[in-house]
Inverse folding.
């Protein structure tokens, strides 16, 4: 059974890379100049699963990130949060709908210099072989029995899956001819079946998807294409619960496939995680050198927030407000440990190291502070019905 899952994962990866490269061929360089920064900040505080405690730090973290990016010249943003005691929780659909809405806003604005930051803080599950991260929607209840390799696809289809977001951003283009990719999710093409039936269904799903993309590509028409990649950063503030077993069994072929996935999805962006899969991350108080009055809670105290929110605050605090910051510089600062009062700071971020496209690395990413939006858009949580995972019923 494990071999079947490994075969399926290999097929999914190979077909994804093939179909994505066909659909997005002839990709030019992003436009240079002052950046239009857009963001999505998600903080899931309420959880229906008794193994994942509800707490208000995620809401505070996402709100802090929204404030930081507004202060640093963001053009537009969406904030999606719930509170600890809410019975209407953030669902997987809520997160992906907000991401879709953000793309639609970029297209309506006609921005040729769009840059995107996606921040999500929640409990998470992770696999240390593949570096797959499954962020927990508030309405997801995970079976208490050990998660095993057969459950990979079922969990991906019900959680907020890191590769859904990475592939979604990799394929996002401003040109309306690529609009059919805006709500495309890798996990939508994963089978819920078991054993060899899964292999059959998965092969059919990927073949249908490949045909669909080829039909769309045939209708694109003549160049010029406005299909430059949108430089992006994904910040997953994952308080990992971890797995007792490795979901994806380690083997050389599988490792090559996983590396190829990251290389294909991160040549125009970066992904940072608060904890390396298999390790734990905890919320912390904002360090004293970063704390501002507008960040304090109603009692005038520093809120407890996610580690990546603190690292982002550090990077933006050290940035020259009168100069833009490139994606290359942002990456170097996120990974830097040159901190004076390091005892107040969280552990270093975890990132999958892949080469950025040179024409992407040096474009402006964080703008100057000269422009500031008045307020961000808020999105509602709608998760009222429990979603079960991951055993076959």
């Amino acid at each position: 059974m494990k071999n079947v899952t490994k075969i399926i994962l290999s097929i999914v990866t190979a077909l994804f890379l093939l179909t994505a490269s066909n659909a997005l061929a002839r990709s030019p360089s992003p436009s240079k100049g002052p950046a239009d920064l857009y963001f999505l900040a998600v903080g899931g505080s309420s959880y229906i699963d008794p193994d994942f405690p509800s707490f208000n730090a995620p809401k505070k973290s996402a709100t802090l990130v929204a404030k930081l990016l507004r202060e640093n010249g963001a053009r537009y943003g969406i904030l999606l949060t719930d509170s600890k005691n809410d019975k209407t929780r953030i669902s997987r659909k809520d997160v992906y709908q907000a991401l879709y809405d953000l793309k639609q806003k970029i297209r309506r604005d006609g921005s040729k210099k769009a840059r995107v930051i996606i921040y999500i803080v929640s409990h998470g599950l992770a696999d240390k072989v593949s570096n797959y991260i499954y962020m927990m929607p508030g309405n997801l209840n995970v079976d208490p029995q050990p998660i095993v390799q057969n459950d990979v696809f079922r969990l991906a289809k019900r959680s907020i899956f890191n590769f859904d977001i990475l592939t979604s951003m990799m394929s996002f283009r401003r040109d309306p001819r690529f609009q059919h990719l805006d709500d495309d999710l890798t996990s939508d093409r994963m089978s819920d079946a078991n054993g060899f039936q899964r292999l059959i269904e998965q092969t059919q799903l990927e073949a249908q998807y490949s045909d669909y993309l080829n039909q769309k590509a045939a209708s694109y028409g003549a160049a010029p294409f406005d299909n430059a990649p949108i430089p992006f950063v994904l910040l997953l503030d994952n308080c990992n619960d971890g797995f007792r077993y490795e979901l994806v069994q380690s083997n050389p072929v599988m490792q090559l496939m996983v590396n190829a996935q990251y290389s294909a999805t991160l040549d125009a962006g970066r992904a940072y995680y608060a904890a390396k899969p298999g390790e734990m991350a905890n919320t912390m108080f904002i360090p004293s050198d970063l704390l501002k009055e507008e960040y304090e809670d109603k009692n005038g105290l520093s809120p407890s927030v996610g580690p990546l929110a603190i690292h982002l605050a550090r990077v933006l605090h050290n940035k020259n407000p009168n100069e833009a910051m490139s994606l290359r510089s942002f990456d170097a600062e996120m990974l830097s440990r040159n901190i004076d009062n390091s005892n107040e700071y969280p552990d270093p971020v975890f990132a999958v190291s892949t080469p950025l496209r040179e024409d992407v690395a040096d474009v402006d990413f964080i703008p100057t502070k000269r422009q500031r939006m008045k307020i961000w858009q808020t999105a509602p949580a709608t998760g009222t019905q429990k979603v079960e995972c991951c055993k076959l019923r």
Remarks:
- DSSP finds ten helices and 15 strands in the chain.
- The longest strand covers residues 114-127.
- The chain has one domain: 2-25+33-389.
